[in-house]
Amino acid sequence: MPPPGYRVSMGRIRVGTSGWAYASWRGDFYPKGLVQREELSYLAGRMSSIEINGSFYSLQRPSSYRTWRDAAPDDFVYAVKGSRFITHLERLRDVEEGLGRFFDSGARELGPKLGPVLWQLPASLSYDADLMGSFYGLLPTDVRHVVEFRHRSFCADEAFAQMREHGIGCVVSDSPGRWPMAEVVTSDVAYVRLHGHTELYASGYAARSLDRWARKCRRWSNDADVFVYFDNDARGRAPHDAVALIERLGRGGDE
C-alpha cells in the first residue's frame, strides 16, 4: 500500500482519480462483492488524493463531506470541483452569492483534508482580464484554487501573470487534441487532469507516457505541491493508471 503522499524536493506529489463511484470499476478495480459504501475507503487506501466531482453538478450536503472526510486516512487530501452553476451557467458573472452558497454547502467540513478547489471553465469562455480578475477577487483566500480553461485565448502571458498575481494554479489538462494544454506553474499548486491518452475519457496511458508524467511531476514538485487526477474512467482505466503512476513515483525511477 502506497504512502499517502510522496514528498519530493520542495513539494508533495499526490495522485488519484476524478470521482470513485463507477459501475465499470466493480469487479475489476474494486473486488467482486465489495459493498458500494466501502468503495471510497478502498480507493482512498490506495491513492493519496481524490477529486470530488459531484460538487460540479449539484450542491452537496455538509454531512456528505463529513462522511468522505472520515472515510479517508489522516494524511489524505480531497480536491473539490467547483459548481457548474458558477462556471457554466453564470459564466463567472455576478457569482458572489453563488460562491457563498457553494462554500456554505460544506466543503470546509473536510477540515485538513480539503485541498484545492477546481474551477473548470466552459470551452466557449474566452479570456477576459476584467472578468477573470473580478472572479479571482471573490474567491476565499483560506482555500487554494486552480482553473482549468478550455479556450486557447488563456494561453497568454497576461493570463498566466494574472493567475500568479492572485495565487491561482493553472491546470495542466491532457486531452487528446480537444483542449489546449499549458504546462505552466502559476502558484504553489501544480494541478494535472489526465482525460485520456488517445481517446477522451476512455483510453488508458501507456507505460512510456506514464514515465513522462512521472518525470514532469518530479520537476513541478520543485516549485509546488502536485495533484494528479486521472479522468479516463469510461472504460475503468483511471484507477489502474493512477496506481501505475504511484508505483513509478514511489520506486524513485521512471526511465
From TrEMBL:
Question: Which branch of life, at top level?
Answer: Bacteria
Q: Which InterPro entries match?
A: DUF72 (IPR002763), UPF0759_sf (IPR036520)
**Which Pfam families does the record associate with it?**
DUF72
Which region is the signal sequence? Answer: none
Q: Know the name of this protein?
A: DUF72 domain-containing protein
